[in-house]
Specification:
mainly alpha, about 0% strand, rod-shaped
């Protein structure tokens, strides 16, 4: 279960990063 939780955390972090990048592109 620890691996699953870690994977979920990584995916969440990547999605957050993607949202920031898209926000910058839209703002720029």
């Amino acid at each position: 279960m620890q691996d699953d939780a870690a994977l979920c955390h990584v995916v969440s972090s990547r999605e957050d990063l993607l949202v920031r990048v898209m926000d910058q592109l839209a703002g720029g």
